[in-house]
Amino acid sequence: MIPDIESPPQRSSRRTGGARPLSASTLRALRRDVFALSTRSAPFLPRVRHRVLRKLPFVLAAFFALDLAVPTALAAAERLNLVWVGAAALGCAQALPVVLALRWPIAAWWLSLVAMLPYGIGLAAMGGSAPADAPWPWTETGLIAHLTVTLIVAWRAKPRVYLTQWLITVLVGGLLTVALTPASDDNDLFLLALLSAFGLAVIAVVRGRREAEHKLREQEVLTEFERTRRALLEERTRIARELHDVVAHHMSVIAVQAEAAPYRVTDPPQELSDSFASIRGNALSALTEMRHILGMLRSQEQPSDGRYTPQPSLENIEELVANVRAAGLRIESVVSGAPRPLPKRVELSAFRIVQEALSNALRHAPGCQVEFELSYGRTGIRIRVSNSPATGARRQAGRGHGVLGMRERASTLGGTLQIGPREDGWYEVTATLPTNEGEGV
After folding, report:
1. Binning pLDDT at 50, 70 and 90, where does residue 176 land?
2. Which of 74, 143, 154, 246 has the most C-beta neighbours closer than 10 Å?
3. Contacts of 75 (CB under 8 A, 6+ apart)
4. Which secondary structure element, helix H or strand E, spans residue 249, and what is its range?
5. Ramachandran area for residue 308 (φ above 0: left; ψ -120 to 50: alpha; else beta)
6. How many Å apart are CA 60 and CA 67, to the nearest integer?
7. What is the pLDDT of residue 184?
8. Which uninterrupted H or E stretch holds 335?
């Protein structure tokens, strides 16, 4: 039995404790993301081709890190009584993650967190000799460096990653405060938590807006693609209906002639009667199958008026030209070559292409002058419709499918269609349709 694809999947009523494996897998994924020290982020300027410009973010980050490292080292040397080598090492350790975060954001964040510990532990170990106004557990510039790294990670990593890192930072700072009980009254942990929370919120909003705009652009592309595809399918359906009318007419004639042929001969042989009966049966079977397929293609809302109206042909071209001329279009028509009957499908497609080209000129170039040329060749016909620039007020351009329909008609017959402006400013539609007269209808 084939399942119903429109019905929603059935949920099992038996509870098997599925929530617990889901939580475990989520925690494993979170742990993997938080400790992905070797993860490299994409370049900040991926579309820039110049090599020097691509390195510009690293250069700016290096200058910023140097500007943070020097005062950090000076503050550490003064407050912790360190020699210049140790103070310089501590300043570099707290400032270097700013540069590393551009390429290895997760590893840089962990390095920035670990670089906080020596200053905080050293300040707590000094006890009462530590300056009472010394910030803790970071220096002023160290706090700026860690905040910068946190925001860079938030810009590149998943939300669950930077939220977890924010919680880890607050937790580590809180544990140090409880365990070491520093003598300093200037605790920057609350300030860091507040500033980083505000920065993370801003980044989350900006990233969410960018992702929404990106998805909207993707949806617009998909919508345009589906609209073009739907228009193409509608045009093919319309062509199929018109071809059905042409072929059905000839098949009906064949069926009638096959039924009447035995009565034109006195005492026809049985083999002849059977042969004509077989021809009539095949013709009627083909008509039934075509109508069945067409019934699936037809829209229920489409009216059936004009179902048996004869389809236009090249004999109606002069009538079409007269109609558009009466509508106010200045048109000059030329027919070259030896006019002759062509296959119905060729004449129908040629008439529709000329009709659409003249309609576009009348609609989009009011007051223009039109030149129409129909050339009969040995193996095909050539249609050329060109119009001068508009001299009147342009009408509002629509989003029709006329050009798409003309291309589809030409390609269905194996022909070509060229549409575009000329060097003199005129707009021209040129179609070449092979006749394939040896194939019958």
Report:
1. confident
2. 154
3. 139, 140, 141
4. helix 189-260
5. alpha
6. 11
7. 61
8. strand 330-336
For residue 436, is pLDDT > 80?
A: no
Residue of 240 and 356 predicted with greater confidence: 356
Q: Which residues have a Cβ under 8 Å from the Cβ of 120 and sit 6 or more positions away?
A: 136, 137, 138, 176, 180, 182
Structure tokens at 255: 């069926």
Query: What is the share, in percent, of the chain residues with pLDDT greater than 90?
Result: 24
80 Cβ contact list (under 8 Å, min separation 6): 87, 119, 122, 123, 126
- State which H helix or E strand residue 418 sits in: strand 416-421
**Pairing of the two strands 369-376 and 380-387:** antiparallel
Q: What angle do CA 415, 332, 345 make, to 5 degrees?
A: 30
* Helices assigned H by DSSP within 40-125: 51-54, 56-80, 84-100, 105-125
**Neighbour-count burial for 104-129, b at 16+ CB within 10 Å, e otherwise:** bbbbbbbbbbebbebbbbbbbebeee
Residue 351: strand, helix, or coil: helix
Q: If you compute the radius of gyration of the chain from its CA atoms, what whole number of angstroms results?
A: 40
Bridge partners of 335, per DSSP, are 374
- The whole-angstrom separation of Cα 168 and Cα 188 is 15
Q: How far apart are CA 131 and CA 123, in angstroms?
A: 9
State the amino acid at position 155 in one-letter form: W
Instruction: Please choose, from the candidates 391, 382, 388, the residue with its C-alpha nearest in 3D space to the C-alpha of residue 434.
Output: 382
Dihedral pair phi/psi, residue 134, rounded to 5°: -75, 130
Query: What are the distances in angstroms from CA 406 to CA 68, 131, 309, 382, 400?
Result: 67, 85, 22, 14, 12
Residues 324 and 362: their CA atoms lie apart, in Å, by 8
Determine contact, residues 31/44, Cβ cutoff 8 Å. Answer: no
Could you give the CA distance from residue 229 to residue 337 in angstroms, rounded to a whole number? Answer: 38
